[in-house]
């Protein structure tokens, strides 16, 4: 009997961190090894993402149920995959892609295909007696990522907050992942105390960040700078700042409308706005600074600011290698956000990272606003060697679980959690490295590393 063959696939409708239905999938091999996966869901979603299948039945969960996706897993997908080797990830994922037949997972649902894809990977890892990061990434999977903590929320994640969706702490000056977490936690609590001192609310939004009603967008940057210093750290040396403006959310009628600042800006003016912030704050990563269909604008901002800051495409690329290929051709961004549920399978996620790495783009693995206790992205960041991860604030169990998982991986790897290979500073980061000298933060090109299926990976991570 082939013990690695798939024997059963089951699925269930459970809840995510926002109290909305999501999918849990369990795959069991003939040898008895099992793997489960829960699928996250986004609130601020790009319109080019793979389709998350919802029931549309207003009588259940306001139409947000996922029973159709559950039935697709237990029916068509199960029938197609039964008897296949659980450790042939590419064949499993290709079978589901062909079965769906739409190119966007619109028929079966990307939530159904991703749940099965990840559950199969976990069952296979168990079959081989390996942790998931090692199964997916091989012996070279030993780079711990620099974490980004979303500590102030606005946009679609907090309706009473700033126009800008995420203000993130980036503790890249820490000597280890565990210490990076400590830096961020202490700063997060210092930020909460500052808000209390100013009689501002300290309730948290979807991703665990505070959502005070600040008078202007720059006020959020100022209060974060103060929190970093109050916690005993140095802005621009110990802790940097990352942003996810999610600019599509405030782009209307061909203009960027920042209501907190009482500004209506054209694309060139929006780029000038970010350039001004680069001169005032230790801003190291800028995600979705323009709208998701503003290709000319992204090319312009990359040309203008790409030597000074990481410009990350999320809604622009949606973890889709086809859209990324266009971005590479048109010189848009120098980094890509990686969200597996935007594309629907692990194989396609790996393909996108491989393409990004060949083009010299960095990769930032990310959670979603509707999360679960599943810590897939922690293992994925190590497996892919991306060197960066964001999973919200150091608050709320579904966020903290990812950071806890990475601390466990760091402990497990011990002295082995350092990268090997050829290390060099990329052109993209030369200028910022000179502005903010920091031996712990660099962009490294690791060649011929055994990390997943990648031959060359660009990484921002901790150095020995």
UniProtKB/TrEMBL annotation:
Binding site for (2R)-2-phosphoglycerate: 165, 339, 368-369, 390
Primary location recorded for the protein, binned into one broad class: cytoplasm
Enzyme Commission designation: 4.2.1.11
UniProt cofactor(s): Mg(2+)
PROSITE patterns according to UniProt: ENOLASE (PS00164)
Limits of the Enolase C-terminal TIM barrel domain: 141-427
Entry similarity comment: Belongs to the enolase family.
Protein name in the entry: Enolase
Source organism of the structure: Cupriavidus laharis
Upper classification of the organism: Bacteria, Pseudomonadati, Pseudomonadota, Betaproteobacteria, Burkholderiales
Gene: eno_2
């Amino acid at each position: 009997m082939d013990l690695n063959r798939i024997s059963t696939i089951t699925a269930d409708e459970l809840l995510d961190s926002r109290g909305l239905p999501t999918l849990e999938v369990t795959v069991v091999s003939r040898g008895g090894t099992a793997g489960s996966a829960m699928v996250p869901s986004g609130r601020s979603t790009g319109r080019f993402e793979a389709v998350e299948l919802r029931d549309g039945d207003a009588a259940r969960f306001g139409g947000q149920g996922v029973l159709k996706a559950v039935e697709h897993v237990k029916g068509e997908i199960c029938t197609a995959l039964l008897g296949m080797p659980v450790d042939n990830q590419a064949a499993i994922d290709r079978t589901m892609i062909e079965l769906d037949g739409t190119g966007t997972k619109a028929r079966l649902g990307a939530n159904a295909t991703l749940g099965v894809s990840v559950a199969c990977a976990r069952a296979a890892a168990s079959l081989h007696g390996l942790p998931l990061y090692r199964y997916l990434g091989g012996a070279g999977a030993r780079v711990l990522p620099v974490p980004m903590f979303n500590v102030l929320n606005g946009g679609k994640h907090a309706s009473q907050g700033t126009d800008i969706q995420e203000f993130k702490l980036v503790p890249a000056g820490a000597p280890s992942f565990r210490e990076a977490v400590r830096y961020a936690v202490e700063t997060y609590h210092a930020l909460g105390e500052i808000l209390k001192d100013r009689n501002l609310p300290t309730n948290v939004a979807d991703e665990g960040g505070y959502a005070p009603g600040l008078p202007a967008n720059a006020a959020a940057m100022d209060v974060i700078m103060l929190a970093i210093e109050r916690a005993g750290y140095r802005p621009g040396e110990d802790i940097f700042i990352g942003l996810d403006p999610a600019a599509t959310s405030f782009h209307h009628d061909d203009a960027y409308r920042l209501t907190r600042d009482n500004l209506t800006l054209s694309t060139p003016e929006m780029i000038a706005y970010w350039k001004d912030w680069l001169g005032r704050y230790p801003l190291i990563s800028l995600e979705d600074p323009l709208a998701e269909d503003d290709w000319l604008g992204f090319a312009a901002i990359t040309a203008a600011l790409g030597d000074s800051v990481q410009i990350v495409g999320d809604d622009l690329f949606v973890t889709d290698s086809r859209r990324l290929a266009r971005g590479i051709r048109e010189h848009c961004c120098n980094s890509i956000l990686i969200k597996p549920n935007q594309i629907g399978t692990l194989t396609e996620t790996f393909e996108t990272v491989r393409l990004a790495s060949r083009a010299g783009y960095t990769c930032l693995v990310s959670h979603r606003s509707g999360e679960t206790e599943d810590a897939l992205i922690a293992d994925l960041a190590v497996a892919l060697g991306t060197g960066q991860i964001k999973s919200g604030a150091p608050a709320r169990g579904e966020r903290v679980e990812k950071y806890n998982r990475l601390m466990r991986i760091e402990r497990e790897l011990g002295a082995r959690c350092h990268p090997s290979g050829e290390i060099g500073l990329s052109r993209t980061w030369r200028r910022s490295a000179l502005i903010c000298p920091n031996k712990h933060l660099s962009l490294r090109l690791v060649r011929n590393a055994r990390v997943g299926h990648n031959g060359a990976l660009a990484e921002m991570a901790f150095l020995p």
